[in-house]
Amino acid sequence: MGSEWLYVAGDTLAPDFNTPVDVIVGTTQGSLRVVSDIATADFQYDEAMTYSFLTTSDDISGFTVAARHGNVYVQHQHERLIEVLIVRETITENEDGEDSWEYTTDIGVVFVLSHGAIAIAKGSHHTEMLLVRMAPSVSELDIPDRTIEWADDLTTRHHCTREFLSIVDL
């Protein structure tokens, strides 16, 4: 924090800012790769399903390819990086009035800049797709609600809570 924002890039980062697996961000203090991966878990319905999760890496070898393909975006370049937030969601399934399971996951990272915000978030709880969103402020970021991935019916409801946590506090 305190550095200047330079870019967001990805080998396959499309103009709509969706990308299959990873995104590279750069500041004057260094670069970082945000990666989406999948793992299996069986907390839901006692059957193994895939769930995506985020990791980071200092391996930015994909930057050269991203630059060659024109997939380096410099919106908010030279703005000061004020804060980094983790976006954490907890999804709870309530069946017949009782909670049957709870799933907590970090769905994204938000870079708060002097005149805007940039988010890198999971596009789904079950695939590796990432979304990059930019807005004038954190409150204006469009990070989609992914509870649509679980079906509600007459007896089953899904509830989602979302928190923005400063990495300083983690």
Secondary structure: number of strands: 11
Which range best describes the helical content: under 10%, 10-25%, 25-40%, 40-55%, 55-70% or over 70%? under 10%
Indicate the structural class. mainly beta
Report mean pLDDT, rounded to a whole number: 91
Largest sheet: 6 strands, antiparallel
Please indicate the percent range of residues in DSSP E strands (runs of 2 or more). Answer: over 45%
Distance between the termini: 15 Å
- Low-pLDDT stretches are none
What is the total domain count? 1
Strand order in the sheet with the most strands = 2-10-9-8-7-11
* Structural Rg: 17 Å
DSSP helical segment count:
1
**Series of H and E elements:** EEEEEHEEEEEE
**Shape verdict:** globular
Commentary on this structure:
This protein has 1 helix and 11 strands, in the order E-E-E-E-E-H-E-E-E-E-E-E. It is mainly beta and 170 residues long. The chain has one domain. The strands form 2 sheets. It has a 6-stranded antiparallel β-sheet with strand order 2-10-9-8-7-11, with no helix packed on it. Strand 8 and strand 9 form a beta hairpin. The longest helix has 6 residues. The chain is globular and about 50 Å long. It starts with a strand and ends with a strand. The model has no long low-confidence stretch (mean pLDDT 91).
